Amino acid sequence: MRARRRVWPVILPVGILLTITCAAAAEPRADSYSAGPSAKAGQAAPPATNEYCPVQPTERAIEEYELEYAGKKIHFCCEPCMRAFKKNPQAYLKNLPQFDVDPAELEDEQDPVMSLLAEVNEQTRQHVLLFSSITLGLLVTTWIARALFRRAGWRSSVRPGIVCLGACILIGSAAALYWRVQSLNDEIHEHQLKDLLHFATYHDFGDRPIPAKPPVERRLKATFYRGNDERSPRLFNGGHYRTCTFHIALCDEVGREVPFGANVAERQLGVRLQIERAPHTPDFFWTPERMQRYFLTQRYDPFMGSEGPIADRVDLRTEQEMKRWSAWFPIGEVDNNAIKFGRCYEGIIYVCEEFRTPERMFGARMHYAIQYDIQ
User: Which residues of 296-325 are buried (b: 16+ CB within 10 A; e: fewer)?
Assistant: First the structure.
């Protein structure tokens, strides 16, 4: 009995110390969200708050929708914009005059979906470290106990029990770790992904998003301009600039444009989209890696591609590196008799951007829509 009293005063403090030390080393930092950019010395003080919503810069902010970030008040136009900002504040700081953001830092912005994945991966890493450290501490304690028992002359039948206890600790910790990793993955719920991927697309344009028709006559060829209106003095031309030009035309399978009144019987027709980069736009918008994520499809479900390949997907083809891209989306072979008896060929083609990690695709965001109606 004297040997047992000598052993436990050593075992317990060592085990507790190892466990607490390892757990503290793996504890996540609580001040990660409060960190924000600070004003540079020698510059004028920024305004106290923002006039326009940082998430939708064309909408005026409302005092009713307010939150505090890095010690400064931020106003939004609606509740969904507040939620979007909370999930990835760094993506919208460039639209807030009360923060001094270096334009060079804008190239490092992270997509909201990727930000959420990074957060989950970081939490997973911390929990792996936590459980592994605790397991290691308990196993070391068990080993020390076994060595002290042997030195104290305890019966050999006690040592196998200590080994079994260590094995149980290891198995239990592994099971707890697996459960926690699974629960972290489950935190990416469908409604979160839908909100991050599509934001207000379904709310503004319906469950099958239908684009607003421009007030012009029907045509078989058109040009559209895509621009930014971010009202930021840190961006080119104060945030007012064209990013790209879209050239859209009805063409056959060999790329010939189809004029009005042409005989298209038994010909494969499709919509050709050409994207031309505008001057003064940042290179990081147009890298080959980024442009490979864009494609055309007629699907419009929130998580297209997450369950498998998209059957009608048409990828962009590079015509000139970093300058021009195109795609031809087939709409089918035209039957003149069907048109004569009232059948029309109509549909909507969506220009989408996939969101994925190397291991998994979560869905695709619909950026633009092309509506056709051949009669």
Answer: bbeebebbbbbeeebeebbebeeeeeeebb
